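Worked Example 4.2. Consider the chain below.
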Amino acid sequence: MQLGVVGLGYWGPNLVRNALENPRYEDVWVWDRDPQRVQLIRRQYRAVRVASDFDEMLRNDAINAIAVATPVSTHFELGCSVLNAGKALLMEKPFTATVREARALRDLAEKKNGKLLIDHTFIYTSAVQKIKELRRKGDLGEIYYYDSVRVNLGLFQHDANVISDLAPHDLAIMDYLLEQSPTSISAVGVAHIDRRFENIAYLHLDFDNGLVAHFHLNWLSPVKIRQTLIGGSKKMLVYDDMEASDKIKVYDKGVQITRKDDVYKTLIQYRSGDLCVPQIRNVEALKVMMEHFADCVEKDAAPITDAASGIRVMQMLEAAQKSLKLGGKKIPLTYE
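Applying the procedure from the previous section yields the following structure tokens:
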């Protein structure tokens, strides 16, 4: 398998490194509009092969997959070119700039019978995979709430607000773990530094069955926090991505209600049982994803983070931005 990587800014070099470390990728081709970035990668990774331009990658029959790690405004055009060239496509998040573009890329991939995988990297972490296992086994019971905090001091973006930058990670994780889609979303935020782009935002999502989700996103926090709380009818879970080893803690805690005919005799009792810390493998998520992408191309495996999941995330993002501009108005979500 030979892979082309387009875009060598922040994320592209990570894709290059993981592909070079994986023996299933025979050659890794690179290209960027900035020649200095290409030279930097060549000095860092002697084994890479350099394409003269993007069109050379598309024409090269030996390259059977291309990863696009460029600004989101270019995703649709480059993605269409990759799929029309008959090559598998690995697309950096966010999928596209709009839901309409995301649906068009999905339709093109289906028409060309091509593989399309969205780089929602956090889904491939050992911790998220373990939570998925616990969820499917029914250990948590019915999910009551999903609460996520992703805050840090920076990195400020010059062309996007904090929702566009940080929310795709957590919305993708939520979509993957809950396996159900919200019916509405509302968002509020404030722009303190650059008045064009909010640096703090809060998202609220409602579901049909009473489940609620809440996201806190912040570029102005004195500490870095990546934490998710999931409350279930059987157990509750804390996922702390900043922990070196004990990233997941499962609490056998909750409430039990004993109902009486007389409403004043309804009893609420609190259950406090054991704390469990599941063992997980600390394997780099991108390494796992690159292995999975090779399976998709060579073994015709179905992508875990496919176009459908990418579209759902884009719909939530687009609705959140709309709500933000309308002062937090609740925006209904509908799906194809």
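The first strand starts at residue 2 and ends at 6. Residues 2-114 form a domain with the Rossmann fold fold (CATH 3.40.50.720). Compare this with Example 4.1 before moving on.
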